[in-house]
Design brief:
The chain has two domains: 77 residues, no CATH class; 120 residues, Arc Repressor Mutant, subunit A (Orthogonal Bundle). The protein is 49% helix and 12% strand. The protein has ten helices and eight strands. The strands form three sheets. Strands 1-3-2 form a three-stranded antiparallel sheet. It has a three-stranded antiparallel sheet with strand order 5-7-6. The protein has a two-stranded antiparallel sheet with strand order 4-8. The chain starts with a helix and ends with a helix. The model has no long low-confidence stretch (mean pLDDT 84).
């Protein structure tokens, strides 16, 4: 029996169509994560992914990826080969640099600041039921300035574009009504931040004063 035949057989047992399986894979490859509480579409993707979790793990394992499922906080996170992830067993496969998506210094700096803030909230027990930590935009700006010595982009449009990018990577969550100018508006740092910025990356950033001056990749933050 061919590999494709075995795959289709397992999908039939789970009552998942091949097209749906491809949709789940594409979402994980494109976004790096499926978070159940992101929206209705992702909720359904997450629920279907759970039905074929073993098949997904085998599929990505063959390709050299690692699929992690946090059932408590209800999200899947896909890691490239060689990623060092706090709390997960060491991956012995060699890294795959050609697959690494590049992100800006501003993205890296804010991700580091969010990791620092999340750890503080975690240490104090100030975490929401879904594992999120609530912070204001002003708190983020202050943390970047004090811990990383880096200001936020000047324009409101640039600031929102940065938040949108962090949301796309499932690091942050906020409502459609969120406004930077609203001092009472809160953003939620998702527990996925723990798998995106490692303890070592955060420690190095804090030790060196948080100097971030060049484009890097999400996966390099995991090292």
């Amino acid at each position: 029996m061919s590999l494709l035949s075995c795959l289709n057989e397992q999908l039939t047992i789970a009552n998942i169509k091949p097209e749906r399986f491809r949709e789940i894979i594409n979402r994980l490859m494109a976004q790096g994560a499926i978070v159940r509480d992101e929206d209705r579409i992702e909720q359904l993707l997450y629920d279907d992914a759970r039905r074929v979790e073993d098949v997904l793990e085998d599929y990505f394992d063959i390709a050299g990826f690692r699929l992690h499922h946090d059932s408590n906080n209800q999200f899947y996170r896909l890691y490239l080969a060689g990623a060092v992830v706090d709390g997960l067993p060491e991956d012995t496969l060699e890294p795959t640099p050609s697959l690494r998506a590049r992100v800006s210094p501003d993205f890296v700096a804010m991700a580091l600041a969010l990791r620092f803030m999340y750890q503080n909230k975690l240490n104090s027990g100030d975490i929401q039921p879904q594992g999120e930590a609530l912070v204001s935009f002003e708190e983020i700006a202050a943390t970047m300035q004090t811990q990383l010595k880096r200001p936020l982009p000047n324009g409101i449009g640039d600031k929102m574009a940065l938040l949108t990018e962090l949301k796309r990577h499932r690091i942050l969550s906020y409502t459609a009504e969120f406004s930077i100018s609203d001092e009472d508006a809160l953003l939620a740092i998702r527990p996925t931040i723990l798998g995106i910025v490692s303890n070592d990356s955060l420690a190095v950033a804090l030790e060196t004063g948080g100097i971030v001056d060049q484009e890097t990749s999400i996966e390099e933050l995991e090292q």
